[in-house]
Amino acid sequence: MCFDVSLTVQEQELVDIAQDFTAAEITPNAGDWEHDRTYPRDTQMAAAARGLGGVLVPKADGGQGVSYTAACRIFEELANGCMAFTFSMVVHNNFAMSLAANGSALLKDKFLADLIACRRIGAFLLTEPGMGSDAQAVACMARPDNDGWVLDGEKAWISSASHAGVLSIYAQTDPSKGWRGIMCFMIEAEREGVHRVGPYAMAGGHALGTGGFRFEGVRLTRDDVLLEQEAAFKGAMGGIDSARFFVGAMCTGMVSAALERSLEYVAARPAFGQKVADFQGIQWMLADVATDLEAMRLLTYSAADTWDRGGNASMAAAHAKKFATRAALTRLTDCMQVMGANGFMIDEVAARHFASAKMCQFMDGTTEIQNVVISRGLLRNR
Ligand SMILES: Cc1cc2nc3c(=O)[nH]c(=O)nc-3n(C[C@H](O)[C@H](O)[C@H](O)COP(=O)(O)OP(=O)(O)OC[C@H]3O[C@@H](n4cnc5c(N)ncnc54)[C@H](O)[C@@H]3O)c2cc1C
């Protein structure tokens, strides 16, 4: 790695823990998780036992209180082994941070300690079967009823839906107000009227436990409110920039792992009386992987640094996500290519990460939505 970031001693310790945890608990098992389509709940608890369950939660609230730059390094290390497992941890850590920042004392008492310990996993419910990119078109209805609301509708494409214990649900409470009518409620997944959908069968990344929820007459009280009207949609969109550079960090981790494996392979594989590594065409393909890896790392950590300094990271995060997800898809296929047919085996890290890299082009805003953000920024005030 040419580019490095500046971290505190405590942050570096957590990155080291993440690196060791990946080598011991994630990389050896990720193939089985994918093959068996299991969600590694025990591994999540084990990660929390090492301090990785509430990295963004302030220390005063029982978390690690690290910078977003440090969180990126942690997620990069974890994704080196399995992006799907890591993304569930990213969503979960963001969820716990949002509760710490926005939740009432009552909600925090109810859920925060369990979330930091990963005794319960958090899921963020915005997307619906009929709506994704156009997030303000929420159709889930929370109809005012006496002192509270009654929730009906459906959510789709939710990370950790198969096993999440706490849900933050974005629902429309007053359609006449458009996005301003959306509120966010935080409830336990066992509440009467909450039904899980899925998990989905996808092209890969099954350790994420992706699926949906159906709500039938779910009763919500004022105690369940995480974010009020107007604040809820702004809150969902406000957190998306950091989610985008976390995706960049995960792509960096995946390509890094694949490059390492390819280098090891070509240095040992014979062809035409020499090593595959001796062919200049192979060397240059790997050099291109390394260049893109460096570029995705720079864009990702530049966006995280902007965020940590309190700047507007929207453009930087969109650049990082667009470039990193595109580069990951291309460069993972290069890593497979230099290994010949063996690179195509699903147990090989590049092949397994390949489907996950495609997944990264959808979540937290598609590539096209990153272009919407970037072009809006370019044309503002023209
Ligand atoms: C693995 C995975 C995990 C996810 N986890 C979560 C989660 O935890 N919580 C959650 O709420 N959601 C989650 N999502 C959903 C994700 O946020 C959506 O998939 C994403 O917002 C895109 O929405 P869509 O898939 O409905 O695509 P659509 O919005 O239907 O878009 C279809 C196509 O049209 C393009 N398009 C749409 N609008 C524009 C435009 N203005 N200009 C140009 N092109 C456009 C899109 O880029 C895309 O190519 C997850 C998705 C995946 C794949």
Description:
The chain has 382 residues and is α+β, with helices and mostly antiparallel strands. The protein folds into three domains: 9-120, Butyryl-Coa Dehydrogenase, subunit A, domain 1; 123-231, Butyryl-CoA Dehydrogenase, subunit A, domain 2 (Beta Barrel); 239-379, Butyryl-CoA Dehydrogenase, subunit A, domain 3 (Up-down Bundle), CATH 1.20.140.10. The protein has eleven helices and ten strands. It has a four-stranded mixed beta sheet. A four-stranded antiparallel beta sheet has the order 2-3-7-6, with no helix packed on it. Helix 9 packs antiparallel against helix 10. It is globular, with a radius of gyration of 21 Å. The two termini are 40 Å apart. The model has no long low-confidence stretch (mean pLDDT 96). Residues 91, 124-127, 132-133, 157-159, 208, 210, 359, 362-363, 365-366, 368-369, 372 line the site of flavin-adenine dinucleotide.
Keywords:
382 residues, alpha+beta, Butyryl-Coa Dehydrogenase, subunit A, domain 1, Butyryl-CoA Dehydrogenase, subunit A, domain 2, Butyryl-CoA Dehydrogenase, subunit A, domain 3, four-stranded mixed sheet, 11 helices, 10 strands, binds flavin-adenine dinucleotide
Summarize the structure.
With 382 residues, the protein is an alpha+beta fold. Helices cover 51% and strands 14% of the residues. It has 11 helices and 10 strands.
Ligand catalogue: flavin-adenine dinucleotide
Number of strands: 10
CATH class annotation of the largest domain:
Mainly Alpha
Based on the coordinates given, report the CATH architecture of the largest domain. Answer: Up-down Bundle
